[in-house]
Amino acid sequence: MNHFEPxxxxxxxxxxxxxxxxxxxxxxxxxxxxxxxxxxxxxxRQALAAEGLKGENGGEALIAFAVKANSNLAVLxxxxxxxxxxxxxxxxxxxxxxxxGIPAHKIVFSGVGKTASELAFALKAGVSEINVESEPEIxxxxxxxxxxxxxxVIAIRVNPDVSAGGHAKIATGxxxxxxxxxxxxxxxxxxxxSNNAGLRPVGITCHIGxxxxxxxxxxxxxxxxxxxxxxxxxxxxxxxxxxxGGGLGAPYFNQPTPPSPADYAQMIAQTMGDLDVAYSFExxxxxxxxxxxxxxxxxxxxxxxxxxxxxVLDAAMNDLIRPAMYDAYHDIKPVLVRQGPMETYDxxxxxxxxxxxxxxxxxxxxxxxxxxxxxxxxGAYGAVMSSQYNSRLLVPExxxxxxxxxxxxxxxxxxxxxxxxxxxxWL
Length: 427
Fold this sequence. Notes:
Elements: E1 4-7, E2 10-13, E3 16-17, H1 18-25, E4 29-33, H2 34-50, E5 62-66, H3 73-82, E6 85-88, H4 91-99, E7 107-109, H5 116-125, E8 129-132, H6 135-147, E9 152-157, H7 183-194, E10 199-205, H8 215-234, E11 241-243, H9 261-272, E12 278-281, H10 285-288, E13 292-303, E14 309-313, H11 322-326, E15 332-334, E16 343-348, E17 357-364, E18 372-375, E19 397-401, E20 404-409, H12 414-419
Parallel strand pairs: 4-19, 5-6, 5-12, 6-7, 7-8, 8-9, 9-10, 10-11, 11-12, 14-16
Antiparallel strand pairs: 1-2, 2-3, 4-13, 13-14, 13-18, 15-18, 16-17, 19-20
Helix pairs in contact: 2-3, 2-9, 5-6, 8-9
C-alpha cells in the first residue's frame, strides 16, 4: 500500500496535491510519504513478532533499514521514530544514521571494502556489530580494535551460493559474487575469531540479493544458515545472533507480486524452528520503494512523421538511473489525466545520450507540454543514486506528512554547483 492517490481527480501524496509541490519547489523533485514509510516498517515488525522471531534479550527483532536505499536524514528520522535501526555500508551512512537519531546499538556496519579509518569510526561510535566479509577484513578489524584497546563485535557474512534477485547486478548470494565467505571458510574463520584478542564473534549473516519475489531461494539459504549455526555450536562456539539480511521484493507495478511480510516471517519461523538466536533483518526497498515518487514535467511532445512519439521530460537518467542501469520498470501516471484515448510514447529525458530513456512504447493517457507526471515506486535507489551528470542540478527531495510538506534536500543553485570545483592558481 502507498499513499499516492487522487484527490478530486488530481494525484496527491497523502493530503498534499503534487501540483502544489511542483509549483512551490519546481520539477523534477522526489516526494516521500511519511505514512507509507511508517506503514511498511510496522507491517514487517508486526509480522516478525507474530511468528515469535525475537531480537536481543527476548525483545523485538532488529529491523535495520538499509540506508543505501534512501539515505535522506528526514526519511531516516521517520523510521528511527518507529524504532528502526540502520544497515550501513560506509562511514558516511553511519554518520547519517546517528544524525537521524538511530542509536549506535541499532546500527550494523556491512560492506566488502571497509577501510581502517571507517572501522575505527564504527568502533568508537559503538555500533551493534561489524559484518565482516573476508579473511583480510577480519584481520584488519582485529588490528584496528586492538589499537583502540577494544574488541570488535563481529558477525561473519556467509555466501550461501543461492541465486536470487530481480537483476544480475543486484544478486549477491552466488559463489561468484564478491560478497561473503563460503561455509567451510566461515567455520574456520569463526573458530579463529573466537580466539582472537581483538574480536568478539557473535553471529553469522547472509544477504542473497534484492527484489526477491520467490521465498524458495531464501528458504534454501536460511536453511543452510541454520545448519551452520548448529555446526558452530557443536564445536562449542557461541552463536548469539543471526542476521538474515534483506531482499524481500517491493510490489512494483507490472512486476511479479512479492510474498507478503507475513508469508516471509512464517517461512523464516518454519525454516528455523526453535533455533535460539537473536534475529536481525536489513530491508530497504520493501520499506522505501513505494513510499516515494519522482515528479516531473513534460517539456514537449516530439511527434515523428512515421508515427513515433517522444514525451520529453525535465527529469533525466541522472535523477532516476534505475531504468538505464537495471532496465527497471516504473509505472508512470499523469498528475491530472487528460481525456482521450491512450497514446504510445517513448518517455525520455534531456541528457545527451540514448540511454536517457525511461521507457519505450508505453501506452499512456494523452500528454502535452506542461503536464506533470509521476514515476511511482521511486523511493528506493532513486535520489541516492542521482548525480549532476551534464552539470544538471541535483534533484531535491520533499517529505509529506498529512497535509504538510517540507523540502528535506533543497535543489542547489548553479553557483553552489560551480563552487564545488577549485581552479588551481597556476591556471
